[in-house]
Amino acid sequence: MRNRVIIGGQWGDEGKGKIVDALSRDVDWVLRYQGGANAGHTIHIGADKHVLHLIPSGILHEGVRCLLGGGMVVDPWALRDEMIGLEERGFRVRDRLFVAGGAALLMPYHMRMDELREAKLGRHGIGTTGRGIGPAYLDKVQRTGLRMGDLLLPTERLERKVIDKVLSANEVLGALYQAEPLPARVLAEELVVLAQTLAPLVVDAHLTLAGVRAGSESALFEGAQGTMLDIDHGTFPFVTSSNTTVGGALTGTGLPASALGHVQGIFKAYCTRVGNGPFPTELLGEPGDRLREAGGEFGATTGRARRCGWFDAVAARYAVEINGLDGAIITKLDVLDTAESVPVATAYDLDGVTTEVYPTGGEDLPRCRPVYRELAGWRQPIGSCRDLGDLPAPARRYLEFLEQVLGVPIVGVSVGRDRAQMIWTPTGVSG
Ligand code: IMP
Question: Terminal CA-to-CA distance of the chain, rounded, Å?
Answer without folding.
Answer: 24
